[in-house]
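>> received
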Amino acid sequence: MTVFPATGWNRLGSDVIHRAASLRDPVRRGPTRLALLLATLLAPGAILAVEIDGFAEPYEEVRVAAPETGIIARIAVTEGQAVESGEVLAELDNRLLEGSLEVADARRKATGAIEAASADHDRKVRRLELLRGLLASGSARDEEVVRAEADALVAAATLQSAREEQHIAALEYERIRERMDYRTLRSPTAGVVTELILKEGEFVTSQEPWVLRVSRIDRLRVEVHVPVDQVGHFEAGGSVQVEFPQSQVTRQATVDYVAPIVDPKSGTIVVKLVVDNSALALRAGQRALVRTGP
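>> returned
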């Protein structure tokens, strides 16, 4: 932050005023307008301007982490590449899971056990119906009918068990497939890949799970530390002008946040600004300058 008070310029101001006052208006023979203007601006206690320095930062910056440990099988992006939200960034090695998925897929598609249990159930139900008819005519005993009923019930339970096994196999298939998708890293936001932390073939540990960094730069965030006597120029939802000297452009910024407390060490208040950068003409990291006046 740079403050230009008149008191800091007293020696220079006095000299300038003296020289300017020595110039006489050819008509009025009095101090020139320049002298009067300098005398006003350089009066003790007058504040010419307050310049508050800051830096442009990505609106959002995410270090994308792998959810599990494992070897990185594929990096699908390069540094500087623009990505959309949900786009695949990298994949962990899934060879073991792929084998398990094939087994689960075969089990969920298998129909032999169900067909065999169904055929046995149908046979025992027909035998039970036959014995019941014979019992009515006196050609079968009660014990035979009771045994046939039990056999039919067991056959029905066996058929139900086969169907449940197939359903469990289908659930297992979905579980493995979802875990494989879980091990696929996707971008949490639209932005630009700004850093590849790990490479293909490297191992991701639980202590350092970060694989790459994605930054959202279609908007930039500028954080400045504003003196207490200048914070009245900033109101959440309002707008201020921000100059980017390195790019030689000035943009309108929206005041996103004004801290409710004062930093006791610096005597300043944190103010966060948001600058539209949809054309990507500005780069994160460059100097930003906010000017306030009296």
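>> The radius of gyration is 40 Å.
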